Amino acid sequence: MHQDRELCLTGVGRRYGVRGPWVLRGVDLVVAPGTLVRITGANGSGKSTLLRLLARLDLPSEGRVTGRPRTAYVPERFPSALPFTAVGYLTHLGTLHGLGRKAAARAAHTWLERFGAGPYAGTPMARLSKGGSQKVAVAQALLGDPELLVLDEAWTGLDGPARAELDRAVAERTAAGGAVVFVDHDPRRLAGVADAIHTVADGALRHRTEDAGPVTTVVVQGPPDGRLPPEAVRAAVAVAETAPGGHRLTVPASHSDAVLRALLTARPPWHVMRVEPAGALPPDPGSRP
Question: Where does the ABC transporter domain lie (predicted)?
Fold first, then answer.
């Protein structure tokens, strides 16, 4: 069950058209249950393409995506011209998630109230403002208790109380064991809370390490289809698959003992090939000086 909830991108690339330029290439990323992951990068760098791959809305042009967590996605711009009222749309989605109609309607009203959208629950979607439409977009993603929540500038257009409520909802998701991956233009958004920060630059995903302090690199080998222990993945600054069953983990030096213990006590245990001593990694080349 845990293997299905962990999403793993291995050597993933995406381009549009057979001969189109590569938007992303060589992307390795593990999103473990219970983690909060921030994606940064300049406009047009491929952040949204990466999020769509994580949400399985797009297929990779190369590489593979494994794991099947129940996923919800919030785009920056939500298509509001739908033939529903706000509450009717959410109720319909609730029934698709397996709720009875009365339970779906209760859940729809609950989420609309949480985001301050209760007064226009009966308003047709096409008549909602940008902010109102975005509140419905966030509510529809949270309605089904997703195991992976993907947020692409989801705070854009929300008023202050709704932004704060989305912050709380993100914390609730990760505390419940769900994973959240997000992009936001405001560097203060959830500052200091993310378990991992990655930067998209020049078509590649670069693992942010400038704030990690001293780190240790652990190279391990396991079965070809083996899954790394979640404790090890959560502690890692970066995880890369080096070969079938082989992984390189970069972890804060202060967490290295816990990571090694998780690897060695797993069933079956992982074979630790090499441990490189602690040192400071160079700044992320995609970050500003």
Answer: 7-227
Question: For the segment 168-209, what is each residue's pLDDT rounded down to a tens digit?
Answer: 999 999 999 999 999 998 888 988 788 888 989 889 998 764
CA–CA separation, 135 vs 110, rounded Å? 12
φ and ψ at residue 56, rounded to 5 degrees: 60, 30
- Flag whether pLDDT at 97 surpasses 60: yes
Q: Examine residue 13 and state whether it is found in any structural domain, yes or no.
A: no
Name the domain count of the chain.
2
Q: Are residues 226 and 263 in the same domain?
A: yes
Long-range CB pairs of 279-282, under 8 A, 24+ apart, other chains included: 279/214, 279/215, 280/213, 280/214, 280/215, 281/209, 281/210, 281/212, 281/215, 281/237, 281/250, 282/209
CA distance 113 to 58: 32
Q: Are residues 161 and 249 in the same domain?
A: no
- The model's pTM is 0.73
Same domain, 137 and 193: yes
How many helices and strands, by DSSP H and E, does the chain display? 8, 13
